[in-house]
Specification:
Blueprint lengths: L1 H42 L4 H8 L6 H7 L6 H10 L5 E3 L7 E3 L16 H6 L1
């Protein structure tokens, strides 16, 4: 019975810690929102950069992102991922080497996504 009581107390304590962490996360997101938005707007060029960034979700490969955006080559995606990773804009997907996913949602931050990049821009990228 004593073990059950200790377990219950520990579970309750962990729930309180989790609730506190969630509250802290909300405040951090709220307080840093404008700075994050400004950084993304100046770092990600309108058009192809923002489209690639926004499409970099889940387990998508560079080829998957290129296909979604109708790019002729996945190398434009990989070049950008490699530039963005040291800045903390994308994180490596843990189960698959060479895949990255975005950290922030541009739409959630109110950053406009430009219409699809013209074919010439996509080819030159």
């Amino acid at each position: 019975m004593n073990d059950q009581s200790n377990f219950h107390e520990m579970a309750e304590c962990l729930q309180q810690i989790l609730a506190t962490m969630k509250e802290l996360l909300r405040w951090v997101k709220f307080s840093s929102r404008q700075e994050v938005r400004q950084f993304l707007e100046t770092t990600l060029e309108p058009g192809l950069d923002r489209a690639i960034y926004q499409a970099s979700i889940h387990k998508r490969t560079g080829r998957d992102v290129a296909k979604v955006l109708r790019l002729q080559s996945h190398m434009a995606v990989h070049r950008r991922w490699n530039n963005w990773a040291p800045m903390g804009l994308v994180e490596p997907y843990p189960e698959q080497k060479g895949r990255y996913r975005r950290i922030f949602d541009l739409e959630e931050l109110g950053i406009p996504l430009e219409p699809e990049a013209p074919a010439k821009e996509a080819q030159d990228a």
